[in-house]
Amino acid sequence: KSRVAILISGAGSNMAAIIEAAKAADYPAEIAVVISNNPDAPGLALARAAGIEALAIDHRPFGKERHAHELAIDAALRLRGVEVVVLAGYMRILTAHLVRAWEGRMLNIHPSLLPKYPGLDTHARAIAAGDAEAGCTVHLVTEGVDEGPVLGQARVPVEAEDTAETLAARVRTVEHRLYPETLATFILQRKTAPV
Ligand code: GAR
């Protein structure tokens, strides 16, 4: 099984979905560690309750030294023999240093049908645009924010009465299916890919 780390900042519902999927004997990943930049992230307690090591590596003591914060994360990943990094609601933009260090081995989930709506407030923007469909995208992380190669997408309808919150909740339900599935497919293809 590939050793996977999950990086979070908040609720950790996608993390929880991946942890749940990884309980299956034939799932190709084991969750080696969960790391949050936010010590108060509810996802940390969820991970610990599932028996997974969960670390807070707070960005605030590092101030403007973003690279130093990322070096602390990188050291924690390497110490645990992590092979693939999964961003799941990790709400800090990574510097080129960490992105390059994990290029091709770092995935993110974004709550829109990329290339539509990179960045924040994706659901409000989809509603304001009158879109009939919304969704989420799992992609490889590259230096351009929300720009990396797409690995998978899932779609939901936008309903007439939707608010950003109701649409976010509908998208999240499909995120919880898409992310574990796409991660598994990615790992299996990586293992069989010619080197
Ligand atoms: C998810 O909807 C994810 O797509 C989004 O944050 C939420 C995290 O929820 N990610 C981004 O907006 C990344 N820019 P979770 O903590 O419950 O998984």
Structure commentary:
It catalyses: N(1)-(5-phospho-beta-D-ribosyl)glycinamide + (6R)-10-formyltetrahydrofolate = N(2)-formyl-N(1)-(5-phospho-beta-D-ribosyl)glycinamide + (6S)-5,6,7,8-tetrahydrofolate + H(+). Pathway: Purine metabolism; IMP biosynthesis via de novo pathway; N(2)-formyl-N(1)-(5-phospho-D-ribosyl)glycinamide from N(1)-(5-phospho-D-ribosyl)glycinamide (10-formyl THF route): step 1/1. One of its GO terms (biological process) is 'de novo' IMP biosynthetic process. GO terms for molecular function: phosphoribosylglycinamide formyltransferase activity. With about 200 residues, the protein is α/β, with parallel strands linked by helices. It is built from six helices and seven strands. The protein has helices spanning about 15-20, 40-50, 65-80, 95-100, 120-130, 165-190; strands at about 1-10, 30-35, 55, 85, 105-110, 135-140, 150-155. A seven-stranded mixed sheet has the order 3-2-1-4-5-6-7, covered by helices on one side. Bound molecules: glycinamide ribonucleotide.
